[in-house]
Amino acid sequence: xxxxxxxxxxxxxxxxxxxxxVVREANMGQAELKAAQTLARQDYRLFWEExxxxxxxxxxxxxxxxxxxxxxxxxxSGGKCNLVHNALDRHILTVNKNKLAVIWEGESGECxxxxxxxxxxxxxxxxxxxxxxxVQKGDRILIYLPPLPETxxxxxxxxxxxxxxxxxxxxxxxxxxRERIESCRPKIIVTAxxxxxxxxxxxxxxxxxxxxxxxxxxxxxxxxxxxxxxVETDMVEPRDLRYEDLxxxxxxxAPTEVMDAEDPLFLLYTSGATGKPKxxxxxxxxxxxxxxxxxxxxxDVKPTDLYLCTADPGWITGHSYVVFGPLMAGTTVVLYxxxxxxxxxDRLWAIVARYGVTILYTTPTLIRMLMxxxxxxxxxxxxxxxxLLGSVGEPIGPEPWVxxxxxxxxxxxxxxxxxxxxxxxxxxxxxxxxxxxxxxxxGRPLPGVEVDVVDRHGNPAGHDKGGxxxxxxxxxxxxxxxxxxxxxxxxxxxEKIPGVYFAGDVARKDEDGYFWFQGRADDVLNIGGHRIGPxxxxxxxxxxxxxxxxxxxxxxxxxxxxAAKCFVVRAEGWNKDYDSEDELIMALKAHVKRELGxxxxxxxxxxxEQLPHTKSGKILRxxxxxxxxxxxxxxxxxxxxx
Length: 642
Ligand code: ATP
Ligand code: MG
Prior knowledge:
acetylation, five-stranded parallel β-sheet, seven-stranded mixed β-sheet, AMP-bd_C_sf, AMP-bd_C, ligase, Acetate--CoA ligase
């Protein structure tokens, strides 16, 4: 019978041991980890209850986990809290009051800094203004903003007054924005006149006008416009309001709404790598507990840290680990508005050096892009303040891992590949700073979460067999449902394999229990009966020095059922090593066979100047597949126009 298992071909033998000082000083040291794992195994409810007790609550919960109506789990039912109380209000009473919360750098070079107290006052002002506009608990606020201090302020103010926020990435079109408006019916939209991206001014407000054109008036009663780029905008009376006018007279004190643990905090659409973006709903209580704990363990934050994450606040990484997690931990966050390569390939390194960034969390796509420009750019800057690196979003692959670790992390900083999703809300599989690191592996599941690899029927795949990634037990930061679509939530995640959460990814676990992600279940190739994860073939290709990025898809083959077709972005200077494209193609085919074994036959290799990506920077394989096979590509609203 078809098991759905995936072959595993990639073998990576290198290991990196943590520095003694990192081990000594880690928030989650060996002893704590042992204790956490033991408790989590014995009683994971008690384990998470202890984590919840590390936060401030207005009233304690009656029950840690209510699992009476699966898959609609509830955490900390009866508890009263507000994430913003933990992210902001409580810091005002401690030494964090005058600590920097946010350092913002605009693409054009300007800088704004906010202490926790200043941020608190701004959030209170906006909270009062929103209340003045009639926003009540449960009303939706749609935030269509680039990374600006006002983005953070609006996110916190919305949560503070109990509104449900939806961020829409500022690169989305009027049509995508309108779809989200129609789905969540926001009372208020917060946007900006414009912003800077790659040296250009993007006119943002006009996109909102277009999206709202003809929209009935019970939705988006007000559009609040932040002044950022000095773009002329048509202000529609009385709908449109200037952010600065709105808050000018407001008091810098405002009460924080008392929320039930299960009250919604935000609604967020996924990045759309596999299909139409799905709107996932997250709540205050469980989410704040899960994000807070995992941020402290993995990013290992200390009071002196300066933290930079390159994700846009509009993605889940931006929610959990640019804004909410770091602020709950009292960290100083560096927020950058613009393009990471503007005006040239060392912008990120200049930012690290300018502020003395200690923790850098980014994506494989950006790492590959930076690799392409070579190590001369990082070498121009003092990166010695960095002490911890992270990656998220796609399988990173061993070679980009090693490059990042060596040239940015001085072969010293722990590089943590974190696997998680919009749906999980928090890190699920990740090494800790004290872990032994294997390049290309995301390490093991964190304490309190039970992630496994199984076949189509839910049986464990066993060591070194690839299979479906599932989660066996509920976890506090899990999404509660799809917006207005309980049935869709059940079908997409809980009915594919009985009794477990189906993540939609494939991976293998090695003999040490380390996870090696192989790509999306939808993208698995079937070559002559062998199921192969695209990420392994892509990693093999990227290990070749003439390749910077690769995408692999299955195309129909009359003999083998399917064959691999590869799309490759070449490295600068490839033609010094090869006389012709044909010669390079032959070399790459032989290289992949050598790395992965003889049956990975590659039908064709096509060279591209760039690969199609989602707006969040992930390779959009289904578009390549559609172009190749003539099939419908599906929803392309997430495609980044490059
Ligand atoms: P959609 O669900 O709409 O296709 P998406 O899955 O890209 O979009 P996200 O929730 O932002 O939306 O991304 C989560 C996915 O990203 C994971 O399911 C996985 O495929 C991939 N991913 C994230 N981190 C890692 C990682 N460290 N290693 C491998 N894959 C990762
Ligand atoms: Mg997904």
